[in-house]
Amino acid sequence: MAARTALFVIDIQNDLATDPATRIPHASRIIDAAGKVLASTRRQLDGSRQDASRPLIVFVQHEEDASSGALVRDTEPWKLVFEPREGDGDEILVGKRTRDTFESNPDLADKLKGLGVTAIVALGIQSECCVLSTCKGALAAGFEVAVLRGAHSTYDEGGKTAVEIERDVEADWRLLYAQGRAET
Description:
This protein is of the alpha/beta class and 184 residues long. The protein is built from 6 helices and 5 strands.
């Protein structure tokens, strides 16, 4: 089976990306970057439907209880900014209730491997939470993992700006890359 790469579009949801009261500081950059990467990946996908190594796009959508936050199923804050194309088997939606998409979906790694996926490229929101946790879950499941520089972000937190946190996450991945386990 030919090796495939899956683009993970992680938690780009209205509450985190479009609501002026709750969005991350660099939401417009993330929406722009994700839109460009998604458009490019879809062009590649549309031009290679018969190619066994065509990309797969995985849209990840976080869900929580009303007592935990705003990302409650079927509410406006929970909705995705970018959605899978209806009827396209190479674009899938995966829900999660923990930071790590693989932890929330124990059968996901086997499903992806069954589709020929060997590598994951990640982008989305929040760098140090769901993006990092999902990438670590992917590594633990045996995938090659890359985090797209400039295509993930978060909130200012703990005395650090969002940009500083992004850099910290990317530095973690450079260290893993140096060890032969990840790419940035």
